[in-house]
Specification:
By secondary structure, this protein is mostly helical. The chain has twelve helices and two strands, in the order ααββαααααααααα. It folds into two domains: about 130 residues, no CATH class; about 100 residues, no CATH class.
Length: about 280
């Protein structure tokens, strides 16, 4: 359900793309250092965005390193991380662990079940580190699972269950910015859940898995209608973002919020000519 909150590379300057890649690489390295190869595999664009967002908002010390990796073995490249990127790595691993359990419940995918078992001890470590946050996320996931099991026809309710999860992820400090971060996470989470559901409509129809669009509208949902629903979600998320006093990397973050999140929605149209993917 992750992988939608990424930049539209065609609109980024060379310097901005290099900066984004440095934070993406930083998240990858944090995952590997803390959780090994199994953790590194869980790398997500969405949590790279969260790490960069919180770093830009709170402006902590940022560690810069030049390194090689399996994907880029021939030359060193810049890696950046902060305490908030490390936090994003923890949440990245926790959500991947929960997603593996969810995939097993939905479709009994043995591969995901095996990966989930590989993450079991690492997931427990994070739950112990963030007990209140983990408890709230687990409760929200239970609500989401129950709604899906009942074939909930209320799109706003079921998407809101996942929005509640992301609102928890986005808040690190209980401070003056927590309200806007929570609201931003909530609507971005609803967007992620619904765009994922729209993308999976045909697959879910064939496999008879729950899909909020199929449950509420059958086969009557159009691309235009889905776009209007998704646009409302991102409109609210962007309003909350603009209230945050962010200066550092603000153009990269705006690129992601206003353009990048739509790349997969338009992947088969001329509006987005495969500009978002970072390899």
């Amino acid at each position: 359900m992750f992988g939608y909150v990424l930049p539209w590379q065609d609109e980024l300057k060379v310097r901005e793309l290099r900066e984004y890649r440095a934070y993406y690489c930083g998240l990858c390295r944090c995952l590997k250092k803390s959780y090994g190869i199994a953790g590194q595999i869980s790398l997500s664009y969405d949590l790279a965005f969260l790490g960069m967002l919180l770093t830009a908002l709170y402006e902590p010390d940022v560690t810069e390193e030049y390194c090689r990796c399996a994907l880029h073995p021939t030359h060193k490249h810049l890696s950046k991380y902060s305490v908030y990127v490390k936090y994003a790595a923890d949440m990245n691993l926790l959500m991947t662990y929960y997603k593996c359990k969810d995939d097993w419940n939905d479709e009994h995918k043995l591969l995901k079940a095996g990966y989930g078992m590989a993450l079991l001890n690492k997931g427990k470590k994070i739950i112990k580190k963030y007990p209140k946050k983990a408890k709230t996320i687990k409760k929200c996931l239970r609500k989401l699972y129950e709604a899906e099991e009942k074939n909930c026809k209320d799109i706003d309710y079921v998407a809101g269950c996942f929005g509640d999860i992301c609102s928890v992820l986005f808040v690190y400090h209980d401070d003056e910015w927590a309200k806007d971060l929570k609201r931003m996470g909530y609507f971005l989470g609803k967007f992620i859940y619904l765009i994922d559901a729209y993308e999976d409509m045909e697959k879910d129809k064939k496999s008879q898995c729950y899909n909020p669009f199929l449950a509420s509208n059958g086969e009557n949902i159009t691309k235009e209608r889905a776009y209007q629903i998704l646009l409302m979600m991102m409109s609210e998320a962007s309003k909350a973002f603009e209230r945050l006093p962010i200066v550092q990397n603000v153009e990269i973050l705006r690129n992601i919020i206003y353009s990048g999140v739509w790349c997969r929605f338009y992947k088969n149209t001329s509006e987005c000519a495969d500009g978002g993917q970072y390899e």
